[in-house]
Amino acid sequence: MNDLFRKAVRGEPVDRPPVWMMRQAGRYLPEYREIRESHSFQEAISTPDIATEISLQPYERFQPDGVVMYSDILTVLEPLGFSYHIESGVGPVIENPVSSPADTHREIGDVREQLWYVGELIERLTATLGDEAAVLGFAGGPFTLAAYACEGSTSRSFMAVRRLRAEAPAAFERLLDAFTDVLIEYCQYQEDAGADVIQLFDTYAGLLSPTDYAEYIVPRHQRILDAVDVPTIVFVRNMSGNLELLADSGADVVSLDWTVNIDTARDQLGDVAIQGNLDPALLYGDPETVRERTREVIDAAGDTGHILNLGHGVDRNTPVENVAAFFETAKESR
Asked: How many CB atoms lie within 10 A of CB 255?
């Protein structure tokens, strides 16, 4: 792993923050769009040659300190018997969503056999990058995956899973447990394949009340993150005011969305390392504005225990020159 990344995860002082971007391998890059003209999304993520090339595209351009594997949080639906596809203009569509409490009884298939391509991708990235950059694996969180499985597609409110929580709490917990169990196996598989760091994206768990989050989510995050020995990062949107619940997960790093003030986060989280949190929309400004606002994030975070990132994934139409300005500012901030 990149030594700068290792120090930041441990909360040690660094000359500059290590930097990477959530969703950094993706649609804002013309070379990525060129590949996707010939390959569907699911073909791209499940073909190690293609996924390796895509994962390394931003590294070749910007030399980030972390390279995130090109994959999707929904891959772990497969070992639980769910089928999905990506529909243009709609996003992920679950073909056999949960339709009743009885559908929450799920048998786990062979994670390593069914998701073999993820392990091979990580092995290739590790062999290519060595100690030059951290190889980041990731997984969706149990609530977010359950939300998709119940809704059948993306949603603003994910009311279907929240309704399941109210009408059939035992089934709700059973579904969360099924995803927790498969995620433990999946994260362990990524670690064994060579991932230096694993990030857990439970993006939509912030839709729950703090009471429900503490009861249903925190213990399951703890189980998942305790199951691996590599450093871990947890990310949940809309947790301003409840950051201690993220720290309770036991993750080494708490990733902050752009709605959180870093000074406030430091007060609430204490010595826990942080990641973030430039608003991705600011990358639509001119390059000098990007540099100015990025420096503000770096200055606010201080020189200890900070990984520079966005507060969410980079948007598909972001100008490449502004992404370059973001990375350059990080590297010039010694």
From this structure: 26
